[in-house]
Amino acid sequence: MNQNAEMLNYIYQNSQMGVHTIQQLIDITEDEDFRKHLEAQYGEYREIHNAAAKALNDAGYDEKGIGAFDKIKTYLMINMQTMTDKSPSHISEMLIIGSNMGIINAVKNLKKYKDAEPHIVNLMERLLRLEEDNVRQLKRFL
């Protein structure tokens, strides 16, 4: 697989994790203001996810999504961590940790695949900005 496909698959997987995680958290949260914030984040991840899927398909590649084991593991981890504390502060902390991991990986991949096609680099930079914005916006819920 070439660097364009590898970078697109990273974008696809990262945004897929965002979509699944936030979708689950929307159902868990009891705070209406926080739910609206999560729904906005969900929409952004969904747009990036769809753009990565389209770019992969247009280039003749199949999406390599997150494996079933990782999805189940994440689902269970979220349920366990929110079992006793469903507060926006606690969920924001969880999401900030996840977004910081996304920021680190996005920067690494931008360096690793610096010769990828410009539209793919732009999509990765969009994902990076989303992760950085998420951290900044979630701080108000801590």
Secondary structure blueprint with pairings:
Blueprint: H1 3-28, H2 32-58, H3 68-82, H4 88-112, H5 118-138
Helix pairs in contact: 1-2, 1-3, 1-4, 1-5, 2-5, 4-5
Structure description:
The chain is built from 5 helices and no strands. The protein is 80% helix and 0% strand. The mean pLDDT is 90. With 142 residues, the protein is mostly helical. It has one domain (3-141): Ferritin, core subunit, four-helix bundle (Ferritin, Up-down Bundle).
Q: How would you sum up this structure in a few lines?
A:
The chain is mostly helical and 142 residues long. It has helices at residues 3-28, 32-58, 68-82, 88-112, 118-138.
Q: What's the gyration radius in Å?
A: 15 Å
List unreliable stretches of 5+ residues.
none
Name given to the CATH architecture: Up-down Bundle
Alpha-beta content class? mainly alpha
- Based on Cα principal axes, name the global outline: globular
SSE sequence, one letter per element: HHHHH
CATH topology: Ferritin
Counting structural domains, the number is 1
Number of helices: 5
The count of DSSP E runs of length 2 or more, i.e. the number of strands, is 0
Indicate the mean pLDDT.
90
Query: Biggest β-sheet, characterized?
Result: none
